[in-house]
Structures are given as C-alpha cells and as structure tokens.
Amino acid sequence: MIKKLCTKHSLLLLTGVISLPLAAQENSLFANQLFANQLFTDSTLDFSTRNMWKYLNEEETGKKNIHSAWGQGITLDYKSGYLADIIGMDASYYGVIKLGASDNFASRGILFNDGRYPGANKDNASGFNKVGQLYGKMKAGDDALGANLYGGWKTLNKFGALTTSNRAAPNSYLGWSGDINLDAYRLRLAYVTSSYNRDSPDKVSFATNDGQSLTYIFTGDVRYKSENLTAQYFYGESKDYLQRHGLETEWNALKKLQIGTQIYGTEGQEKWKSMAASKQSFDDSAWHYAVDARWKEKDWFTKVGVAYTDANKTNGIGQFPRHISKNSRGTFNSMATAGLDYMRDGETTFSLATGYNLTPELTTGIYANYAFFNFENQSIHESEVNLYARWIPSQTQLKGLSVFVMAGPGWTYQQQGYRPIRGGDGEVQRAKSLAAEIVIDYKFSIF
C-alpha cells in the first residue's frame, strides 16, 4: 500500500515538474501576444518640463501692487494605442515646484494658494501635483468619416466655448466629449461637471461670480475647413448662468496673406440676472467683434487687428467676460486680450504683433495694443508695448528645448470695481504697469 502511494505521488510530482515549463511557455506566449497588441505597441510616453516666471507691477486700484510667481512644472504624458482598434486610455501627471513668490502671487496662475494665512500673503504659495488627465477613449471610422468619444478628466483646447490654459500646469475638465468628422466638416460636443484649475490640485465645481455652484457646462462647435477657408461656429452654456455664441473664420486670401474674423456674444441667464449689480460685468448681453490680417514672409511676419466691444452696464464700465463661469477658461482668439483690458464697453482696440528671425534659431518681435473708449463724457485710453524673444536651438543635443522672454510697460486707468477712480479735478486717474515673463520648455519622448 505504501509503495503504491509513493509511486502515485512520484508520478504526480513528475507530471507537475514536466508541466511547469509548458505553463511558463504558455504564459510567456500570452504576455507576448498581449503586449504585441496595438494598445501597447502604439502607446507613447512623453516627459516635459516648464520653468515659468511671471511678474506684474501695477497700480490699477490706486496703490502699487507687485504680483510675482516662479515655478517649475513637470509633466508625464501617456497615450495608449487602441485595443482592437477601438478602445484605449490616456493619462497625464503634473507636478509644480515652488521656486519663488511675492504677495498677490495667485494672479499669475502658477502656484497653489493653500490659504494658510489671510489675504494675498506670499507664504500661501506652494507647489502641488495631480493626475490632471485620466480618460478612456473610443474611436470608429477614419479621417474621411470617423468619430471619437472621451470620458474622464481631459484638457479641452479651444473646444467650443471652453479652452485649456497652460502655466506650469494646465487646467482640465471632468466629463464627456467627442467629435464626428465627415470630409471637410467636423462636429464636437462636450458635457463637463467640474474642473482642476491650472494652479491647483483640488477638484472644484463651476461657479457664478457670487459663488453659486453650477451643475454643468455644455458646449459644442461645428467647423468647415477647406484649403483656403476655415469657418467655425460654437455655442456654450453654463447651467442657468451664461450663454456664449462664437463665429470664427480664417481666409487665406493670398499665399502670404491670412485674414481672420472673430465674433463673440454672451447673454446673461437666470442666475446672472439674480446677482447683485456689483457682481455683473454687463447688464443683459455683451458682444465682441474683431478682424485681423497676417502677412508672412520667409524671415518675418506682421499681424494687425482691430476690435470693438459692446457691453453696456448701468452706472459702470461694462466688460466682456472671456469665461462663462468661475473655474473654467473661455475660448477667445481676438488679438485684443490682456487680462481684463481691451474688452470694455465701447472700447476700440488696435493690435500689432511682429516677428523677425534674426537667425534660424532666434526670433524677436513686438506685441502692442492701443485702445480708447468714452465714459461719462471723458475719453479713457489703454495701451501696452511688449518686446519678446524666442530661442529654439537646432543642435541635436538640445532638441526639445525652447526659451521665451517678454517684457514691457502698460498704461490704463485706476478703478474700483466697475467704476474709474477720479482725482480732485474730476479727471480719471491714470495707472502705469510693467509686466515680464520667462518660459523655458524642454520635452523629450521616453517611448
């Protein structure tokens, strides 16, 4: 009996020993087949850094304020291929290290305000990290007729009435988005319920100017694109708060000449109209109209634009709002954009952007705005002149590196809320400013 048991156990042990390499071979074959799938073979992982310093010295409230922030951003951006050429997943990690800050640093949008101390204290500045993008994706069809669907945390760059703004890290949105392409036409839709701000790791809801929570933002656009003409209409709505309409065109009039137009309209809804007047930047509706022309030569370009804003506000200077809620960023491609400037009621703005290639690696240029409007029978002027330089080295060892520097003065008026500050003679008080920024980007592909 004992002999039979020993023989039986020996046979089982021998069978197990023989089967181990066979099982290992099968597992290895399965793993090889799995990782040979396009889900993995078509995936990419990019690493990038952004060192950003932004500075502003201004006196718009009647006293001198300095806003300065300096941070080091780090990004890991993973994009998968598609399983069965249908489904995949992308993810992005963002980290920001604090390098320096002044009081009022939060206006620069680089560092996180952790709120440990009251007011605009520089000691509130800190770094942060977040998984700013994490979404599933599905696709069908091809470039001629195709569709894409995304769900999760995702950046939305110039997507309908929403966009993504990047400092040391970008802002992103939670929700669903997708597009359908048919030859020269494209339709995109998005429904989002919350966001990560570009300078924060905290998930936040969309909100009104007086702090009421908004359930969602819905937006979409339809585009036609041919060899010489691109035209796009978009619509967006923050629930019961603001509606946004936009129409943008780009026309290649000549080989070297491109003409663009932008029309944006915003209408207040129930929650907008119920706010106190001190929270409203316009009464019922606000419109912005702009046209620009760009001439491009081999070593230089010049772009000029003119814009006009209609944003009536009772007992104050109305403004066109670029964003359709707090904690979101709005699509706005007019040249007349610089914070809140150049988008005031009745304001006409002239813009200039130039660039010249001193060498194949180094470009320098000017960006300038001049604007004027009337308020209570007094003419008010705003302007700025910025000099910039961009260096993109061509050496193989420095591939992926770029350096951008810009600085210049500005002139506007002193204000409190939506009204200008006047001197003893009744004249609107002037305000000067000086702004500067340095951005150093570096990017390379890990696989």
TrEMBL record:
Q: Does the keyword Methyltransferase apply?
A: no
UniProt KW keywords: Signal, Transport
**What Gene3D superfamilies is this protein classified in?**
Porin
| Coiled-coil ranges from the UniProt annotation | none
Pfam families in UniProt: OprD (PF03573)
What InterPro entries has UniProt attached to this entry? Answer: OM_porin_bac, Porin_dom_sf
Query: Which superkingdom does the taxonomy of this entry point to?
Result: Bacteria
Where would one find the signal peptide in this protein? 1-24
Q: Decide whether keyword Signal is in the record.
A: yes
Q: Which GO terms describe its cellular component?
A: membrane
Segments spanning the bilayer are none
Molecular function GO terms recorded: porin activity
By sequence similarity, the record places it as follows: Belongs to the outer membrane porin (Opr) (TC 1.B.25) family.
Can you say what this protein is called? Putative outer membrane porin protein
Look up and give the organism this protein is from.
Answer: Yersinia intermedia
